[in-house]
Amino acid sequence: MLKVEGHIAWRYLVAKKRQNAINIISGVSSVAVAVVTAAMICVLSVMNGFGEVVEQMFSQLDAELRITPASSKVLELADARIQTLFEMPEVAIVAPTVEETALVEFRGRQVPALLKGVDTTYQSLTAIDSILIDGSYAVWDGAFERCVMGVGLANTIGIGAHFISPVHIYAPKRVGRVNMLRPDENFRSKSVFIAGVFAVNQTKYDDTYMLISLPLARELFEYSESQATAIELKLKEGASVRMVQKAITNTLGEDYTVLNRYEQQADFYRIQMIEKWLTALLLVFILLIASFNIISSLSMLILDKKEDIRLLHTLGADEPMIRRIFLYEGWLISAFGALVGAVIGVTVCALQQQFGLLKLGNGMNYVLSAYPVSVQAMDVLIVLTAVLLLGALAAWIPARKLKIDN
Description:
- This protein is α+β, with helices and mostly antiparallel strands.
- It folds into 2 domains: about 1-60 and about 270-400, no CATH class; about 65-260, no CATH class.
- It is built from 13 helices and 12 strands.
- The protein has helices at about 1-15, 20-60, 80-85, 120-125, 150-155, 205, 215-220, 240-250, 260-265, 265-305, 305-315, 320-355, 375-400; strands at about 65-70, 75, 90-105, 110-120, 130-135, 145-150, 165-170, 185-200, 210-215, 225-230, 230-235, 255-260.
- The strands form 2 sheets. It has a 6-stranded mixed barrel.
- Helix 2 packs antiparallel against helix 10 (about 265-305) and helix 10 packs parallel to helix 13.
- The protein is elongated, with a radius of gyration of 32 Å.
- The protein starts with a helix and ends in a 6-residue tail after the last helix.
- About 35% of the residues are buried.
């Protein structure tokens, strides 16, 4: 029975109507659905592309896994559970770090910065070399303490990688009483020479981050050699981040938090997803408006096919069956537009990815020269599902009001 109803609906879709306006409205309906479907796929793919670009930027400084204390600020490396990390076959590098806020000063310009003390494995732990825009990476040259800072922080204090004057660091003392009479004695100070400047193109890093050696950070912030604020891990090639994260979490227990790269930037990814689907929701509203054309088309088709409806009823078709014919008719209009739109959207994204047709400015003042795109199958499936559901709803409105005149 469904095959008969579908066949009749298809004939109504492709056959010429007595009223040419019905053909025009049906065509406009399919075109509107196709345009909105293509737009949704393109917009979501561009937002995916930007997300992947930023994720790649973050990954230059973020370790694959990061371990922090759950309820305190300091962790003890002597903890037996922490020592098991060094014995895990999937782990290539275990690097303790110290992160604290301090005041940095250069030639009278002062600004707070987030200092990160790293050991000699940090260059292998991350891809810091790939984001250096000036100088080289070094936090200790064998004779002097060095630092590497974000481009925004360097610009704020007016320094470059080849300056020979030192940067002064002032860190508040963690232990002891505050001396109200001599405020200067409440700070520990050290001087370092700048070695390089990096750019992640993210404010969180570029405007605040400054890398120094781990021994210097411990000295400034009064940590012992067995203490750190976090431990960062690099896994061996082929190791599953999710599986290793789960194993470490089970080993360390509730006293520690184990974060992957996504979780380290959870706020950013949450905002990105909200922006992505809010944009998609706005396009769904446009699609909803376009679906009203389907209602108009079906309403006119029902009037046009009054004689056919009576004939079908005479031949034994009941009212629900005839309603389904027109319901399928509206759904076919929406489905045709959705499929055409999906093909157009994916094709446009493929062309943009291959040739960079839509540029970002003149390519000189942007990180990227063209809009990035990344088509995800799940996004296409969600868009098609939304379009088909709205099409079915639009078809149901006029079909349910169909009445057979006796």
